[in-house]
Design goal:
This protein has 232 residues and is an alpha/beta fold. Helix content is 41%, strand content 22%. Strand 11 and strand 12 form a beta hairpin. Helix 1 packs across helix 5.
């Protein structure tokens, strides 16, 4: 069963989110603080996704996101905050969140986004077992779709599930200029209503991980006014 961690200090909001997720058939753990959330994670919770409020007592949601991401590249993370400023969204995505929603929010939209996130996160190695050759090769890079690991010259690179899916899209479309909207649809789903800038933030994160010189990328190239192109 899919397990989701909801971290929100306002009881009414946390309970509303948890109720709707349980109605969707998922197991939900609730935490009113970042410290309690870390306790639950440390107990071997095995969560596929986490919803993190930013304004928490003690450690805030951004710091919690960074802490979680240092230990777990696979868990899906959605930042939920009343802060709608562009710099807050970019900060949340830059430190490892997969998605960002601002309050007030639609519970049905949040549930839909978590569902999409969990579909990506829950894809196990067994799911790819019957797909034939699961290793995609592009120059010095190897993308293993079964283990969900990217290798550069034989060295594994830790990617979030969103970053991995972007790389899958690139590997299946080598040398092709992909418009931002196509990347957004291919990774986040056609019914995603978030900001297309989420693509740019994830591309910056990917460049920091795979490029020798992120400021002068050789592999993930910008197609100005359009999108991005993969050059293996």
């Amino acid at each position: 069963m899919i397990r989701v961690l909801v971290v929100e200090d306002e009881d009414s909001i946390r309970e509303l989110i948890a109720l709707n997720l349980r109605m969707a058939g998922w197991e939900v753990a609730e935490a009113a603080s970042a410290e309690r959330a870390l306790e639950l994670l440390g107990e071997g919770g095995g969560f596929e996704a986490a919803v993190l409020d930013v304004m928490l007592p003690g450690m805030n949601g951004f710091s919690l996101c960074e802490t979680i991401r240092r230990d777990d590249a696979a868990i899906g993370i959605i930042i939920l905050s009343a802060k709608g400023l562009e710099e807050d969204k970019i900060r949340g995505l830059s430190i490892g969140a997969d998605d960002y929603m601002t309050k007030p929010f639609s519970v049905s939209e949040l549930t839909a986004r978590i569902k999409a996130l969990c579909r990506r996160v829950s894809r196990s190695p067994a799911d790819a077992a019957g797909e034939g050759d699961t290793r995609l090769v592009s120059g010095q890079f190897v993308l293993d779709q079964k283990s969900r690991v990217l290798y550069k010259s034989g060295r594994p690179i830790d990617l979030t599930q969103v970053e991995f899916q972007i790389m899958e899209l690139f590997f299946h479309n080598p040398g092709t200029a992909l418009v931002r909207e196509k990347i957004l649809e291919g990774v986040w789903g056609e019914n995603y209503y978030g900001d297309v800038k989420i693509v740019d933030v994830n591309i910056r994160r990917l460049r920091m991980k795979i490029e020798d010189e992120p400021s002068s990328p050789r592999h993930i190239l910008t197609v100005w006014g359009y999108g991005y192109r993969w050059n293996g």
